[in-house]
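Re: [help] complex structure
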Amino acid sequence: MPPLDPKSGGRALWRSLDDLAGDKAFQDAVGREFPLYADEMLAPSRREFLMLMGASVALAGMTACRRWPVENIVPFSHRPEGYVPGERLQFATSYDRNGAAIGLLVSSFDGRPIKIEGNPLHPMSLGATDPIAQGTLLQMYDPDRSTGLFERAGQGEGTPRTWDEFAVWAEPILARHKASGGAGLRILAEPSSSPTLLAQKKRLESVYPQAVWVEWDPLTRDAEREGARLAFGRPLRRHLDLGKADVVLALDADLFMDDPAGLSHTRAWARRRKGEDGVMNRVWAVEAGYSLTGASADHRIPVQSALVPVALGRIAARMLRSGLTLSAGCEGLREAIERFESHAFDDPRLDTIAADLLAARGRGAIAVGPRQPAAAHALAMALDAALGNSGNAVTYADDPEPARPGHLEAIAKLASDLSAGLVETLVILGGNPAFDAPADLDLAKRIGSVSQTIRVGLYDDETSSLCRWQLPEAHYLEAWGDARGWDGTAGVVQPLIEPLYGGRSAIEIAAYLAAGAWTPGYELVRTTWSTRLPAAGFEKAWRRVVHDGIEAGAAPALTPVFAAGWGGEVARLAEARQLGGDAMELLFAKSSAVHDGRFANCGWLVELPDPMTKLTWDNAALLSPSDAEALGVKAIGDLVTMSLPGGSLVLPAFILPGQAKGSVTVNLGWGRSRAGRVGNGAGVDAYPLRTAASLWRAEAKLARTPGSAMLATTQDHWVVDTLGRKEEQVRAEELIRTGTLAEYRAKPEFAREMVEVPHAAPISTYPIEYNGHKWGMAIDLSSCIGCAACSIACQAENNIPVVGRKETWRGRDMQWIRVDRYFEGDPESPGLAFQPMTCHQCENAPCEQVCPVAATVHDHEGLNVMVYNRCVGTRYCSNNCPYKVRRFNYFNNHKHETAVSMMVYNPEVTVRMRGVMEKCSYCVQRINAVKIPAKNAGRPISDGEVVPACAQVCPAEAIAFGDLNDPHSRVRALHDDARCYGVLEEINTRPRTRYLARLRNPAEGKA
Amino acid sequence: MAGDRKLWGLVAEFRSADDLIRGAAAVREAGYTRWDAHAPFPVHGLDDAMGIKSTILPWLVLGAGLTGCSLGFLMQWWMNAVDYRFVIGGKPFNSLPTDIPVMFEVTVLFAALTAFSAMIILNGLPRLAHPLLRNARFRRATDDAFFISIEASDPRFDVAETEQLLRASGGTLVEWVEA
Amino acid sequence: MGVAAIDRRDVRDNLGDDPGRRAPLVLGKHDNATITDKVCRIVEMPKPPKAWYVAFGIALTVTGVLGAMLAYLISTGVGVWGLNKPIAWGFDITNFVFWVGIGHAGTLISAILYLFRQNWRTGINRFAEAMTIFAVICAGMFPGIHTGRAWLDYWLFPLPNQMAMWPNFRSPLLWDVFAVSTYMTVSICFWYMGMIPDLATIRDRTTSKLKGAIYGIFALGWRGSNRHWHRYERAYLLLAAIATPLVLSVHSVVSFDFATSMMPGWHATIFPPYFVAGAIFGGFAMVLVLAVPCRQWFGLKDLITPRHLENMCKILLATGMMVGYAYAIEFFISWYSGNPAEGFVFINRAFGPYAWAYWTMVFCNVATPQVFWSRRARQNPWIIFGVAICVNVGMWFERFVIIVTSLHRDFLPSSWNMYFPTWVEVTTLVGSFGLFFTLFLLFLRFLPMVAMAEVKAVLQKQHHEAR
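Output below.
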């Protein structure tokens, strides 16, 4: 396939057009004929999409039985049944990330996927998604993706090639390897949960017995796996059911954001935070960096990451002293545990934790994060078993690939093989090892030394630049595949659109390597599933799986038996020492935006404020206030130098209250050099400091470096002076009204009485009755974890532009729903609260009365509607909005759109022009999408039918939306709840969005 | 100095404003009707001396003001409460308090424009050509000189007699003005 | 030859504050002829002084820069300014309120002082009115260009449009549209009407045919007829009577932009009187800034006498203290109201990140005018000039403080931010001064800058009293 110029809009969208569009002669002809319209003619037309659409429908098996060969693109003359042009359709698929999948429902509009939502049937998503899963949509439309095959001799952009040319080059080589049993063949892949890929792997092993399949994951979670190997003698997967846990101890573990089962954890946890039933779970967090779990915890103890195992050990010791008996196989641990008693580090709260866990025997769980050593995981497993938590909140299942060597071990071996010259051909399937492998392995240089390197990747990135061949990989929304969730639930990945740039999926490539011939992905997947599904009635079952997106049934739980003789490992944990002086522990962390770096070019994610720092477009060295002071860091953005034995790095500092003293966190994945127009040069690359020996934690010396960087935050712009900070504290208490479970039991309506609302009954000069629907929203601050999934969902649904670093720095970020973050209490160990903030649809809307042209008015259902084409942009409404939720288009934010990047727009929402105000509309397009059919069918709208994007995506079910006039609606009930209050009610705006007070459940009732 | 052209009237210069007043009184005594006094600035007492009765201009202004006020209200009421209604921040479609500023401004606008234009029109202005303006000496009427002019069309006009009257009442340098 | 029968007494000083007799308002040996001469010569001189050319050149260049800024702004977007989420108004509206304020002195002097029979106004009212009009032109520009889609500004007027929609009369911005445009119209009427007799004077003196024709047209054929004078005076009186409440209303309406909003620091009932006082304050300051050099350069010391300056200084002192009182009372109320948000805004103004702006304002507006307690200061043109400049700076900062410090930290701390103007905003502000002075210099060159007819009337009275 010819290379495509993304600016002209990824012409070749489906194969039969490829040759046409790619054909030089044809293009010239067009140029001659219609010099002006050449681009348009070659750009994808709606009609082409409609044809593809047909295909997708056929493939999806949405509508009963159709039996044309699925690879055919249905000519538009036979419109597929059940497909109405301009109608939104949803297709189930799965998204595999670092070897664990979540189920998705993708909305498609005339063949364009425009919105990603969670698949309610999938236990790992339960209808919710996280920001990154949603960001993959924009990634697919990224004009900077690899647009074709390139062959490189050494450096440079390389020469464009076709798949056939590649085959011509590859066949002899593969033949040679076949002959030699694949001795010199290595395949370096990113982790995958795909059964089909596993099958191809097996085929490869049979064809090339001596070839090695290496798997590398920069965010590896092997520590837990190894912990299980230590404790039980074999790798197992550990599953948490927070729904069954009354007491959860999270040790350097983010159960919500940095966990393959995070969504289900969040859901289960949130359901136990309501307080109506008077019972709440309690979360203890012991961690170095501030994680979302730490933020939602009832108690958080900031501790250097190195000391977290010690904390666990001390807790264990206390529990033993209070008579906890270790379960069979673990007796040997006793003296190991007792060694912690003598450790320098201690904290009185650890006693409480121990007592709390003991009191909740069988109803607790101890979670340890991936950054902690295997032994810590093993110890936690032993304690869970002793406490009887195993089998309840904690369960174990078989590892899908017990034979797989650890990621680190595998890549280290590959590195040594490379330097030993044992590798003739290196195939790199996805990932970006040249960028994210441990620095001391020097993989970049070594890959360059291999003569035959084939890279299959979405982007022509750092790794591609070192490889001979760059093959465009098909995005998961473009290709067939399958994936398993962390819990083992398997699902099918189905394409929503033909590959934009003629890419091919990893399974197709792997199959090609094994067979030497191309097999369509669909065939491969079907073949795999023909073994999984009953032969009898396979078609039906298969269509069901494609339709639902999953095959029900997680991996069965088992009760493992402890192996003996690992007390020594645990004992070694007690040797961890507290860092002090100018030596600090440097912690590497997953970025909530760019993940391991692969999303560096996704505008939505790069501009999504980090939940804790509210930092966009950058990463930084997160320092505790006291450390910052010691280093002489006055303001955020001041530069600091980190010196390690391996090298040093200069990067801006960010003062984050709650960061453990003596430890500095740096997010990985930033500072890409070949990410694309968005990602290049955003942030600082921390991988060079990361060695195999110190994958997650290193010892570093920090020093202030003259100079300061411009960091774009969406909150706390500039240093807030003491005056302001004091006021912030006072206000935060009124904005986010917080009480303990005890206080709530004593007086359920405590929140309402926190602020005096002058008028007994809210007055209005013109009491308007909203007799039809009366839309309203309720946000439960007890369950909101601040993950900001709602922000991205809103951005995707409402065509919200990305404005860039400088504009964000100015304070012109555009997200319609933002998550406000307030710290409370001691800056060294503060509490933290989140508050999603979007248009409150005030009944007495201050914005409306000041608009001279009536561009924002109320409709008969009480929505505060913004009339874009009437707006002249005086910005008076924004000034007069007490919630500051209005967003202004200071520039034309869509100037740089390309034909491809424009495809992501939701056709049901206007794209706003320069000089126009915009804001949350309660997703009015979704309201009407339900209202109109309901009206046509003459039926009432039932509660829960209308779901705005933010409410739909929320993993914690914190946002409820509905008709306040419906006495049985959930939102009505929540508005009547004792915890319910309105922000700034006292100024009589009569907001339609109200909040439920935040409840905490601290031990002994103290916060 | 009477040319072959038709006589428009006579004009006499007076030394000072006070003389002018005296002269005006005299001319009025004599019962002339089509005559006028000219000064570089409004001279106090001259109106009484000439017996000018006060103008209806104030009443026009009052009327205009009232019209403006009601129009201002009607416009807002019709536009926001009748022709195109929208619910604005829970306020009534027609809320008098918020109408007041605009009503006031429109009142002032109408009144002011009327005062201005009425002055011009009632004075028979603009009149760019006038026999007096052709008189060289008369040009000083806008500088520092005072004049009384009597038109030939006045029923009691008689060249000799009128000229005599002007001189007698303190007028210096009486001149014929041609039409 | 003008034989004025009145005795030519030579008046030297008019500062002897003898309460018994009204001090003369015209100095020097003057009769009607010499006054006409003095004023008209400026217009009639074949070539204006070099200073004029230099000044005009500079002003015109700066105006050109303004044009460039507007072109850049409208072609690129309001983003070229430093505005952001909480602070959606900055220099734009600050300049608007500033210029409108300047635009108050003129009509005020013409109207209110006329009603109060303050004859000393005659020396200064003409160019004070001119100043008003030019200031209002500058003021009107800013709301026009600050919108995101300036080409749609006409939607703010009740004109039929393709949406069959009407503007929202509940919005203070719409009141502004009416108030400012009405004020503009009425001021022009007032100014022009006052000028008709003087234009006639120039018409009658000029020797050039062209000039005669042009001035003749604008003089409307005025010939000093007393029947005309009668209606003229009545109309002028009525205009004054109408314009007086108008002047007060305009800045009250401007203050409604803030007073009727919800923002702490804006939502205050004191605003209308406070703004009007401020406007008079700033307006008179600007009159002085213009009057002091003009009388110097154009030899009008006899018509714009030290007495005039002194009176204006006293007004500055008085209004300055009113403004100071307003500053104080705002603080008191914010505490007394017990509204925490309100309270914080004012603490934040005085001690927050914008304290520098606040104290600049207080120093310029409250402290500096106090020098006018001393008579010597009131009589030294250059001290007066300095203080007047100070007051103008102070009044600009007053608007900046009100707008920016209230917005930058409002209800939700999460959206607090800072505002930094860009070079475009600064240049635009400077450019507006260029426009103002360009127009004013043209006025000085081509129109009578002192109301001759009125001065003559006053002179008449003065001689009568002298008798």
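Chain B touches chain A through eight residues (CB under 8 Å).
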